[in-house]
Design a protein that fits this description.
about 210 residues; alpha/beta; Rossmann fold; 7-stranded mixed β-sheet; 8 helices; 7 strands; rRNA processing; SAM-dependent_MTases_sf; cytoplasm; methyltransferase activity
Length: about 210
């Protein structure tokens, strides 16, 4: 087994079954990426850190959470990784929401192949009536727009955990023009340039 996989196992406590599912996911992603622009091709060799660990680290920030919504789920990060790691836990479910049909068809193929506790929804994130504990997203939009997509989930009791890049602090400052919220920033454990934004108590500026 590769060093990258063993490192991921140590970082996450992933089981053999988790690793097997993630390995299948990687193979299916690699094949699909040849005909669809799901992720940058140069990022696939670094799958275990760049994509899998980047996604999985969210579980340590909300270890009791069982229900998640991934907005703009795209290639399945972080949502598919979360569903794989939550598989078998009572009450666990991940909603994978994306507005593009072909991405949803890819996600549905993964969910079916791996028998994941997940539901794929083809539609606009802000129009769904899903009730979850955590709403998340990666590489979807700047914070002021992303908070708009996520607002309905906050209204139903969710908190937010969003994977962002180096501009996270500037994006949060800009977002305060439209939104009142409490937030915390933490450094990504998969890439020190990345940030994880934790958001609570969201409401629009009047």
């Amino acid at each position: 087994m590769s060093v990258a996989i063993e490192t991921f196992r140590v970082q996450t406590g992933a089981s053999d079954a988790n690793i097997a599912d993630l390995t299948t996911f990687l193979a299916m992603l690699t094949e699909a990426n040849e005909v669809m622009n799901l992720v940058g091709p140069d990022t696939i060799p670094d799958f275990w850190n760049r994509h899998a660990w980047d996604s999985a680290q969210l579980l340590s920030l909300a270890p009791e959470a069982r229900t998640w919504a991934d907005l703009g789920a795209g290639a399945g990060f972080p949502g598919v990784v979360l569903a794989i790691l939550l598989k078998g836990r009572p009450g666990a479910h991940v909603w994978l929401i994306d507005s593009l049909g072909k991405r949803c068809r890819f996600l549905q193929t993964i969910v079916d192949a791996l028998d994941l506790p997940a539901t794929v929804i083809n539609g606009r994130a802000e129009e769904q009536r899903v009730e979850v504990e955590i709403v998340t997203a990666r590489a979807v939009a700047a914070m002021e727009k992303l908070l708009g997509y996520a607002q309905p989930y906050f209204q139903r009791g969710a908190q937010g955990l969003f994977l962002k890049g180096e501009k996270a602090e500037a994006e949060l400052k800009e977002a305060t023009k439209l939104w009142h919220f409490d937030s915390d920033l933490s450094v990504s454990r998969s890439d020190p340039r990345g940030r994880i934004v934790s958001v609570r108590s969201l409401r629009r500026v009047r």
